[in-house]
Design goal:
DNA polymerase, domain 1, 3-stranded antiparallel sheet
């Protein structure tokens, strides 16, 4: 008899064997822990789980002070676990087929204004190692859309400045090629010129003592930058949103943007399109089939 507790533990081990990142495993452990608490008996047989349990859990979450997006995150983890249980033969019924992912309220994506971008990049003292490092971190986030974790795990031998691209480790430990602009190239060269030789296997961004930066260190940097740049809502992911929006505004297409951001689905990219209707209207004459035909 496979209990809920044992099934969750085996599922988490299976995620590690598949090569999922530690953050992904932590995400599943946390979300499934909430479900186990709701069920109330971790020794309950998995085969006894029902659609009513799933629906009851969803209604329970709706009664909590959490957003619809958070509820969707919890349910997504539960559905992955139940699918795994069914595949492993611990469940006789494929519950996720009947227990669909609830719709989440789509939030309006916030981006930095041009003036805020200028204020942000005026905060760094480029005469110092730390100033060059922090400027470079923000440049890669804003100009190439890198995630926080992708920045702190970036490896020196994955940087190809003359060719204009980086190789980053994205979610699920999947590597992808990310292009870099001229300003980012300049920021990288400036930082590298001040960077002492690093021990083998050391990530690119380090402290003065050559200790690799942690995510919390970069988060603390952004907390300080909020005050310096007078941007109270500033956070690492805001730079990624700004990149994606400006990329489309400047004529980039959603398919290449999907590859740059490392999204497996176009749905995650399409949410940026609604932010640029005025830009599309202004530039429509450049794309209009009839207007271009009449120019010939």
């Amino acid at each position: 008899m496979m209990t809920l507790q044992n099934a969750i533990e085996e599922f988490l081990i299976d995620q590690q064997i598949r090569g999922n990142s530690p953050n992904t495993v932590i995400y599943y452990k946390r979300c499934l822990g909430f479900f186990s608490i709701y069920i109330g008996d971790a020794t309950r047989p998995v085969e006894g789980l029902s659609l009513s349990d799933c629906k009851g859990y969803y209604l329970h979450l709706k009664g909590q002070e959490v957003t619809t997006t958070t509820i969707q995150t919890y349910i997504r983890a539960l559905r992955a676990f139940l699918t795994w249980c069914y595949t492993e033969g611990y469940l006789n019924e494929n519950l996720p087929e009947r227990f669909k992912l609830p719709k989440a309220q789509r939030k309006t994506i916030d981006v930095l204004t041009d003036d805020e971008v200028k204020r942000l990049f005026s905060c760094f003292d480029l005469r110092t190692f730390i100033g060059c490092r922090n400027y470079c971190i923000c440049a890669l986030m804003l100009d190439s859309g890198l995630r926080l974790n992708e920045v702190v795990t970036l490896e020196p031998d994955r940087i190809h400045i003359p060719e204009g691209y980086l190789i980053v480790n994205g979610k699920g430990n999947k590597q992808r090629m990310v292009p870099i602009g001229l300003q980012s190239k300049r920021a990288l060269l400036r930082y590298l010129s001040r960077l002492p030789p690093l021990p083998e296997k050391t990530p690119l961004f380090v402290t003065n003592a050559l200790i690799p930066l942690k995510q919390n260190t970069v988060k603390e940097l952004f907390r300080k930058l909020k005050g310096r740049a007078n941007i109270p809502r500033l956070k690492p992911h805001l730079l990624r949103h700004t990149f994606a929006t400006r990329y489309l505004e400047n004529g980039g297409d959603i398919y290449s943007l999907q590859q740059i951001l490392g999204h497996t689905s176009l749905e995650m990219v399409k949410r940026y399109i609604h932010l640029i209707p005025s830009k599309l209207a202004v530039n429509f004459h450049s794309y209009s089939p009839l207007d271009n035909l009449m120019k010939r």
